[in-house]
Design goal:
This protein has 187 residues and is mostly helical. It contains seven helices and no strands.
Length: 187
């Protein structure tokens, strides 16, 4: 049985509603506009940075409670430090080169900004490249370290051993730092 137990038309309706809400939030956050992402990357627009940091913090806490109450079931494969670090660097370089996120590119195309098709083409080229490179990494980088350990049980939210609390707190502290140091273009 699935966590929410939605089937048939209810599952389709929930997917459509979530897609519409996600698209609306992405549009209102200025994420699909290349100029907004470029000003964010140049640290001239704090609004988009604050939106991303707040969304990450709320998402962490939301998934925590969803898993705690059985609404969400997560499956996290073993994570290795070096491949995760290299993947994060490559993802950041892709963001800087394209000045769009994958979701932002999809919304840009839906909004009529067809220059974002290049981002989608790059993602389609990257998918088979990742499969080929992953085969090489399994014989090299994965052997450099043991998988990072995952907590066996979800601790209480306000316990000292809960990584969600630390991650959400760090994200909110970064949000405050950005709020007081990076300006908004409307100000």
């Amino acid at each position: 049985m699935e966590p929410l137990g939605l089937t048939g038309n209810y599952k389709l309706a929930a997917a459509i509603i979530m897609g519409m809400v996600t698209g609306f939030v992405i549009m209102k956050s200025d994420l699909p506009w290349r100029d907004s992402v470029l000003t964010m990357l140049r640290l001239r627009n704090g609004r988009l940075i604050k939106t991303i940091l707040l969304a990450l913090a709320l998402g962490l806490v939301g998934f925590y409670f969803g898993q705690h109450y059985g609404l969400v079931r997560t499956h996290v494969p073993p994570t290795f430090f070096w491949p995760a670090l290299i993947g994060g660097i490559l993802c950041g370089l892709g963001l800087v080169a394209a000045a769009l996120t994958p979701a932002g590119a999809l919304v840009s195309i839906a909004a009529g900004k067809f220059y974002a098709i290049w981002v989608l083409i790059g993602m389609m080229i990257a998918l088979p490249a990742v499969k080929v490179v992953s085969g090489v990494l399994e014989r090299t980088l994965y052997t450099w370290s043991e998988p990072l350990s995952m907590p066996e049980a979800v601790p209480e939210l306000f316990s000292a051993g809960n990584p969600v609390l630390y991650a959400a707190g760090t994200l909110l502290a970064l949000l405050l730092l950005v709020h007081f140091t990076v300006g908004d273009p409307e100000e």
